[in-house]
Amino acid sequence: MTPKKATEALKILAGIENSLCGNMIIYDGLRASTRTIRLRPRRPECKLCGEKREIMELIDYVQFCGMAANDKDKGLNLVPPNERIEVKEIEALRKRGGLIVDVRTEVQFEMCRLPFETFNFPLKKLKRKPELLEEIIEERKAEEVVFLCRKGNDSQLAQVFWKEHTNGKMKTSDVKGGLYAWQEEIDSSFPLY
């Protein structure tokens, strides 16, 4: 048992309120830093840990997800560099009325998101119902759309799709490096998964 675990056990036994219960400590060995993130509570409807559990044993990740666990680790280069923006440019884009569209799944979006308004519009939904995003753009009177994802791969796929869908009539770009770049360059405490 590590000293941290022992200290936490003693705090719980002593009834001290500020234990790390419900939190996770993340240690980054490369940067020699730690951070603590609050875990969301169990959901009663969860199939794994909820009241009516349906999943009782480990399942095959590839079979369940339809892809390998490392499928997003390779960087794609689908979009020319002049059609991509750096994370440092997001604020300027927001000020000139650009719309930031996060193309990750809803579950991933719930885990972490940027600290300002972004629209969650998963890539699969974008490809199925692009007219819904058109409505948001029209409602917001956005002149530019920037796609964002975890590492900058799905956002490129979204940008290529959107450019084809709109015949290039609207200025689009994606955030190079995605949320990983945000954590690296803007906010080192931003939670990643």
Automatic annotation (TrEMBL):
- Per the record, the domain of life is Eukaryota
Q: What is this protein called?
A: Oidioi.mRNA.OKI2018_I69.chr2.g4021.t1.cds
The organism is Oikopleura dioica (Tunicate)
Name a Pfam family for this protein.
Rhodanese
Cite the Rhodanese domain residue spans from the record.
94-191
